Amino acid sequence: MAAAMAERSANASTVTLAAVQRRAGVSEEAFEELFEDREACVLAAFELGVERAAEQIVPAYRAESRWLDAIKVALAAFLRFLEAEPELGRMLVVHALAGGPRVLRRRGELLARLAEVVDRGRGESLPGRVEPPGVIAEGIVGAVLAVIHNRLQAERPEPPIELFGALASIIVLPYMGASVARRELTRPAPPPRATGPERSELESRSGYGRSRLTYRTARVLGAIAGYPGASNREVAERAGIVDQGQISKLLTRLEGRGLIVKIGESRTRGAPNSWQLTDGGEALMASATVRGAMRLPRDPDVL
User: Fold this and answer.
1) Residue 103: Cβ-neighbour burial (10 angstroms; 0-12, 13-18, 19+)
2) Where a domain ends, among 127, 157, 186?
3) Are both 122 and 163 inside the same structural domain?
């Protein structure tokens, strides 16, 4: 879906589910098992973009102790992601706006979390300086995305990383003042964060390292751990996932990784699935990887 919409650009809203199905090279039945409608397909593409972007942004942000440094490396990571994954990047910034109510609702959730992170800049204000109200952070997030949106829609867009100085200046101005904003305007983007190959044996087997396990995946594992035997719908409700196509995909992925298993396979045909964690799933739930991902509501650093 992301690739098809990127090709259509200004006419992305005309991409049909049938066209995406043909592009994917799968049968209509198989496609309909994953996506109940066009919006569900757009939402899945949006979620994939969020996951891929978070893989770059979250470790960079968490590696810094100061708000200013963390914001700068996160911004640089996002701009580099837009260049490395242009189709998913356009899905996040441009095409999601016409994705439908569920996509807009999910986008709104993400923007609120980003605003919370930006709002931490109030702690950087100089003594005696009036702290800006919380709504300023929302305006900053909107302004940054508007600039990126316009550049991505340009006939000959410049590399997104070229916007770094100007966007960093926009972000810090309300919190740290004009002198710091002027300084950031001309400073180069921080280099990409080096990532080491070391991961625990459990993370390697499951395919979920600290930067790959998303908040939603951790919530699904937590829902099953807290309610063994839960059906797809019950897991979705406990994990806070509205789209049934999305929960089906997540459960299938976790089953394929050997983290969850269906129980009661001999039950009447047509009965709902019933899930429980495998030994590997229970071990992963006890690991720092899941505990870190589950902290999102209190620590909105993760998309």
Assistant:
1) buried
2) 186
3) yes
For residue 209, CA distances in Å to 35, 124, 186, 288 come to 27, 32, 35, 10
> Which tens digits make up the pLDDT trace of 230-256?
888 888 888 878 777 788 888 988 888
pLDDT value of position 136: 96
Cα separation of 200 and 209, whole Å? Answer: 8
Which residues form the domain of 141?
40-186
Same domain, 74 and 165: yes
Q: What's the Cα-to-Cα distance from 44 to each of 1, 103, 149, 154, rounded to whole Å?
A: 9, 9, 21, 26
Q: Give yes or no: residues 209 and 75 share one domain.
A: no
Grade residue 303 by pLDDT with cuts at 50, 70 and 90.
very low
| Domain co-membership, 178 together with 211 | no
The residue type at 151: R
Q: How far is the first Cα of the chain from the last one, in angstroms, to the nearest whole number?
A: 21
Give the end of a domain, one of 186, 210, 232: 186
- State the CB neighbour count (10 A cutoff) for residue 121: 22
Asked if residue 208 and residue 179 are part of one domain, the reply reads no
Residue whose tokens read 């006419």: 11
Environment class of residue 251 by beta-carbon count within 10 Å: exposed (0-12), middle (13-18) or buried (19+)?
buried
Q: Which residues contact 51 (CB under 8 A, 6 or more apart)?
A: 212, 214
Say if pTM beats, i.e. exceeds, 0.70: no
